[in-house]
Amino acid sequence: MYGRCGNWWGGRFATPFMGAGFPWGRGGRWGRFFGPGEIRLALLSLLESGPKHGYELMKELESKSGGVYKASAGAIYPALQQIEDEGLVRSDQSEGKRKYSLTDAGKAEVQREVETIKRIWFRAQEAGSWLIGPEGGEIARPAAAVLKVALRAASKHYSDSAKINKLREILERAKLEIETLEKS
User: Fold this and answer.
1) b/e string for 24-42 if b means 16 or more Cβ within 10 A?
2) What tens digit of pLDDT does each residue of 124-159 get?
3) pLDDT tens figures, 47-58
4) How many CA atoms lie within 13 Å of 5's alpha carbon, on the beta-carbon side?
């Protein structure tokens, strides 16, 4: 089915680039960083250390992901409203800002979902280790574009070993040039 080049697309070589194996987990520009229900758990876990404003929560989410996930008000405030409606947090208005804090039900939810929360923050830490701050974001788009065109070319020429080898040589050359730049 895959010719002489092996099962590279559907097998082990595709796995690191698909789903949770990709550096951004479910996220970055290729999808969502948080899965269903995870943003609420992340917010609850951040509030465990004490009351915070929505903006503080946005910045802490960005920080915990090494800058990979940039929370928007359009994602955070509806999630905060949802968990407030569920009785997991309460909000107080002071000095023109709304501060959120955990209720007893919210603390119980954090304890009940402790393993899921650990997985969320582990994935965020892993994502952050791939990119160092905003500078890494500058190369993410062109790197993804190279990966996309390389995979497209490889799938088009999967049975032509000469073209697959040429593609591999181009990518290896680019890797070596980048490594040389990194060392200088």
Assistant:
1) bbbbbeeeebbbeebbbbb
2) 777 656 555 556 666 777 888 898 999 999 999 888
3) 999 999 999 999
4) 21
Tokens of 87: 């009785």
Q: Alpha-carbon distance 116 to 41, whole Å? A: 8
Alpha-carbon Rg for the chain in angstroms: 21
pLDDT along the chain (184 residues), means of 10: 40 39 41 78 95 94 79 91 96 90 96 93 72 61 86 90 93 92 86
Please report which residue ranges of 22-132 form alpha helices under DSSP H: 38-47, 54-64, 73-85, 104-112, 114-130
Continuous segment of H or E residues that includes residue 139 = helix 133-156
Q: Are residues 9 and 151 in contact, defined by beta-carbon separation less than 8 angstroms? A: yes
Query: What's this model's pTM, rounded to 2 decimal places?
Result: 0.57
CATH class given for the domain over 35-130: mainly alpha
Eight-class DSSP state of 160: -
Structure tokens that stand for 182 in this block: 């990194």
Distance CA(71)–CA(5), nearest Å, equals: 41
Kindly state the helix (H) or strand (E) to which residue 180 belongs, with its residue range: helix 161-183
Give the E-state strand segments of 1-122 in sequence order.
Answer: 52-53, 89-94, 97-102
Residues 120/46, Cβ–Cβ less than 8 Å: no
- Where along the chain do the CATH 1.10.10.10 domains lie? 35-130
